[in-house]
Amino acid sequence: MTLTRFCRSHILSDAKQQLYKPCEFALRSAHAGTIPCGKPVLRSVVPCLCSMHYMKAQQHVVRALRKAGLNITSANKFAPKFHVIVTEYVREIKERRKNALRANQKKIVPKLEIEN
Hints:
Helix content is 37%, strand content 13%. It folds into two domains: 1-51, no CATH class; 62-106. The N and C termini lie far apart (94 Å). The longest helix has 26 residues, at 82-107. It contains two helices and four strands, in the order ββββαα. This is DNA-binding domain, KAT8 regulatory NSL complex subunit 2.
């Protein structure tokens, strides 16, 4: 890299650099916490993922959307707008609550009051 003593893979070792930050993708969990990828990524990139982990994250989103019933045929297409995802998530929460309420109502047996 120009104007620095460090190569791209060691640029994070430079305490004065301000352009890069480490990839935040969690490789695995350990007793001390998650272990991040740590490859250098431009600070302006959002989400802060290297190119390999960005593609993995996109695949996870597509898989989750398919599981929710929103079929996206190509990974090149953009995901549905945020309000579509939120609406689907809220619908699932409401459905779970409704099912739980129905299950609780079946368990409740009304008491009959007998007058003497």
